[in-house]
Design a protein that fits this description.
Elements (H helix, E strand, L loop, with lengths): L1 H11 L4 E4 L24 E7 L18 E4 L3 E4 L5 E4 L2 H18 L5 H11 L1 E2 L11 E2 L2 H9 L7
Parallel strand pairs: 1-2, 2-3
Antiparallel strand pairs: 4-5, 6-7
Helix pairs in contact: 2-4, 3-4
């Protein structure tokens, strides 16, 4: 309940929350499979699932054509751990980190974008994939270059 109230407060303030879809390999649109905070349904939550370098949804990745917004690379992601040890890891959290960075870059160009505008930019510029239809609302993989170019060229009309 406290988490939900905090998310609703953030929603009222226009704060974007980027959420991992989870790593259970389930459709989180189904009530018994809900995954939080992704399944709260707040307008400020952007939920991300994980694909591999070929754009295929990870077997572990949760999905949902209503609950999940977009996919991003989340399989065999290189990072660093304690003492600068190189790590290769997979999960929707890795994909979420990438989408968080894309959103931060969009906001650095236009800090007045609200969560709905950010979501629309991500959807309109995603790389569509037939294998991702019904796996997310966008049916595609985030494309940072296209999102930034579109925003910088003022391809999107916002009141």
């Amino acid at each position: 309940e406290r988490e939900y109230l905090a998310i609703k407060k953030a929603e009222s303030l226009g704060i974007i929350i980027v959420s991992a879809a989870g790593n259970d390999g389930k459709n989180i649109d189904i009530p018994n499979n809900k995954y939080f905070p992704a399944s709260y349904g707040a307008s400020n939550i952007i939920t991300v699932n994980a694909v591999d370098k070929n754009g295929e949804l990870g077997k572990f990745s949760n999905y949902g054509s209503y609950t999940v917004d977009i996919s991003a690379i989340g399989i065999d992601v290189a990072s660093f751990g304690l003492y600068n040890e190189k790590l290769i890891s997979s999960g929707t959290s890795q994909a979420t980190a990438y989408v968080s960075g894309v959103i931060s870059n969009l906001l650095s160009i236009n800090p007045n974008l609200d969560p709905t505008q950010i979501r629309n930019i991500l959807y309109l510029t995603a790389d569509r994939s037939p294998s991702l239809i019904y796996k997310s609302r966008s049916g595609g993989i985030v494309n940072e270059k296209r999102a930034i170019s579109g925003l910088m060229s003022k391809s999107f009309y916002f009141k």
